[in-house]
Design brief:
The complex is a heterodimer of chains A (295) and B (304). Chain A has helices spanning 2-6, 11-49, 54-57, 72-80, 83-114, 120-131, 139-148, 156-159, 168-179, 184-191, 196-204, 209-225, 228-233, 242-253, 259-294. Chain A has 295 residues and is mainly alpha-helical. Classes of the chains: A mainly alpha (295), B mainly alpha (304). The interface between A and B is large, with 105 and 100 residues.
Chain lengths: 295, 304
């Protein structure tokens, strides 16, 4: 049906469409600009307020550009709470969790995508089912198990599970990608006597950089922004991650008046993700679009 | 042919095939082990827990169905489910409409399209803890920018996060900024609609509205459905804004289901009761998701 129509393109229809849309397009343009500013305002307000003196923070009407940018607000954040330590802890947790995620997801995805073994379909079904599993169901029992293991107040609960391909979505994304690679790659390598591990690391993975980047970016975001797990498992302040530190600073400052410090701390936490977005936007978008279209 | 394949199935696998099986299990083992240790075992363990009373100090005591009897009558547990349901019921449909409208607008030929797309996506890049910290102040009755903005139109300042009647609406309003994911999925889907279908509709004299109603929306129903299912699951599990911005208050107006489970488990240390609450929550979510899949046959259009 669609192809039959293609042969008779209607000039008139497209002309009419274009004429109608000129006035509409200007309106749409204005509307979208106003709307996008509305979407950006909270973040802009945070950044602007992080550089204000207290009187400007509470000024009416809102001061958008601080008269004398208070960069020392940022220095004070590191004085009121050990934010340097929080940043370091976050880096450790994120690096360990993301490395584990990428390696284990790649291995599992390889097994699901390119190997035949009894039970594969069953386990793949389980994997897909865990995607829809609300995390809350394992919250309490996991805590008790990790407590038995003596893992409370360590980074282990925040990292070890992710060396076991804990996030099904990433395995799924990689599997889809691996399945698209030609099978001959493997057959040739097998004839040359290469082992499976070598095939994965020296043939498959070098050809899969886009999906590795997508998974790494997603996992980085997930572990960097995680709040509930660090909140539950990390008791002592010198183990806290940025998310827990910011939450605690906020809870303390709610009673005080130092909003500019909370805004500065918020900016410190948001900035790496904003930069990641600037440089890796296409991986975010690609990953999300694939999950929606194929999931 | 059937006989042949039957004979093959019962033949001993060749060493080569056996090696592939072993590789399969070896490579999948992180997931298999991880699933058993970090998901399956905890779930079974939590069934056991839900039949016990345990404060993690004295030994666990078997209490039969007490925890479940308690959660049915516990006003706080019921309120927390009501709060989560209220939030989800209002937030998700409006989010879907906003995301879909934005996706439609951003697939037209307009200037700065990429800038708009990034701009609408940006709020979900800001870590939710930082975002909540900022919104707590955006909504502040005296110094927040929302009341200042409403003041331009002569609207009196409102006690967003301090008035139990306004907190959930404020949370719902705040959730409209979080539509970036949905929008990206809709944009990708709209890009997949064949141009020829639209042209055909134009030639038949269909108005823009008719095209939207009879071509675009039916073709997008699978993605609308996907976004809806995911958004409902996520909204129902809202935790961070409630913990950071209001800590469940005022008067438990933002005591959402997950916050209630968290409190019972990690603040009151009622481990058995928290496990029972989690099971109740789990059954509601999974049941609701399955129900949606059943109903989806009625309205979701899958290309044959």
């Amino acid at each position: 049906m669609a192809t039959a129509v293609k042969a008779t393109p209607s000039r008139q229809a497209s002309l009419r469409k274009r004429r109608m849309s000129i006035a509409g397009r200007v309106l749409l343009q204005i509307f979208m600009t106003v709307l996008v500013i509305t979407f950006l305002v909270p973040a802009l307000w945070m950044i602007s307020s992080s550089l204000k003196v207290s009187t400007e923070v509470f000024a009416h009407p809102t001061v958008w550009i601080p008269k004398d940018p208070q960069w020392k607000n940022y220095a004070r954040v590191f004085e009121v709470m050990p934010f340097a330590k929080f940043i370091w802890n976050t880096v450790v947790v994120v690096v360990l969790a993301v490395t584990g995620t990428v390696l284990s997801s790649a291995m599992v995805a390889y097994a699901f995508a390119r190997l035949r073994w009894p039970g594969r379909d069953l386990f793949f079904g389980i994997l897909i089912a865990t995607m829809l599993l609300p995390e809350v169901i394992t919250l309490v029992p996991r805590f008790i198990i990790f407590r038995h293991l003596g893992w409370i107040d360590t980074f282990l609960p925040l990292t070890v599970p992710y060396w076991c391909a804990a996030t099904a979505l990433y395995v799924f994304l990689m599997r889809q990608y691996f399945r698209g690679l030609p099978m001959e790659l493997e057959e040739a390598a097998l004839i040359d006597g290469a082992g499976r591990l070598r095939i994965l690391f020296q043939i498959i993975l070098p050809l899969s950089k886009p999906v590795i980047a997508t998974v790494a970016v997603f996992a980085l975001f997930q572990h960097y922004t995680d709040y509930m797990n660090p909140l539950i498992y990390l008791n002592s302040m010198d183990k806290w991650t940025l998310a827990v530190g910011l939450g605690s600073l906020n809870a303390n400052e709610s009673y005080g008046a130092s909003w500019e410090l909370v805004f500065a701390a918020g900016t410190i936490m948001a900035l790496p993700m904003l930069l990641l977005f600037v440089f890796a936007q296409r991986y975010f978008v690609k990953g999300i679009a694939t999950t929606g279209l194929k999931g | 042919m059937a006989a042949g394949s039957k004979r093959r199935r019962f033949r001993r696998p060749s060493p080569l095939v056996l090696r592939e099986w072993l590789s399969g299990y070896a490579f999948a083992s992180p997931f298999i082990i991880g699933f058993l240790v970090f998901t399956a075992f905890p779930m079974i363990y939590s069934i056991w827990l839900s039949f016990h009373r345990w404060d993690m100090i004295s030994p666990p005591r078997f209490v039969g169905l007490d925890n479940f009897a308690k959660l049915i009558t516990d006003p706080r547990a019921n309120l927390s489910l009501y709060n989560s349901a209220f939030y989800t019921v209002f937030a998700v449909p409006i989010q879907l409409v906003i995301a879909f409208a934005l996706a439609l607008a951003l697939t037209q030929k307009i200037r700065f399209r990429d800038f708009y797309r990034s701009g609408f996506y940006l709020p979900i890049i800001v870590p939710l803890v930082a975002w909540s910290v900022v919104w707590q102040r955006v909504l502040h009755p005296e110094f927040g920018i929302l009341n200042e903005f409403l003041g331009w139109f002569g609207i009196e300042p409102m006690n967003w996060l301090f008035d139990p009647a306004l907190t959930k609406p404020a949370f719902i309003f705040m959730s409209f900024w979080m539509i970036g994911r949905m929008m990206v999925i809709f944009i990708a889907g709209l890009g997949n609609i064949p141009e020829t279908l639209m042209e055909a509709a134009s030639i038949d004299g269909a108005s823009a509205w008719a095209k939207l109603r009879h071509v675009t929306i039916p073709l997008m129903t699978p993605l609308i459905f996907y976004n809806m299912v995911v958004a409902i699951i996520n909204s129902f599990q809202t935790f961070i804004p409630a913990k950071i911005m209001t800590n469940g208050g005022p008067q438990n107006a933002t005591l959402f289901a997950v916050l209630n489970i968290y409190r019972n488990g990690f603040e009151y240390f009622n481990m058995g009761y928290a496990a029972a609450l989690a099971w109740e929550f789990f059954i509601i979510i999974v049941g609701f998701t399955i129900a949606q899949f059943y109903v989806s046959n009625k309205w979701v259009y899958y290309e044959a």
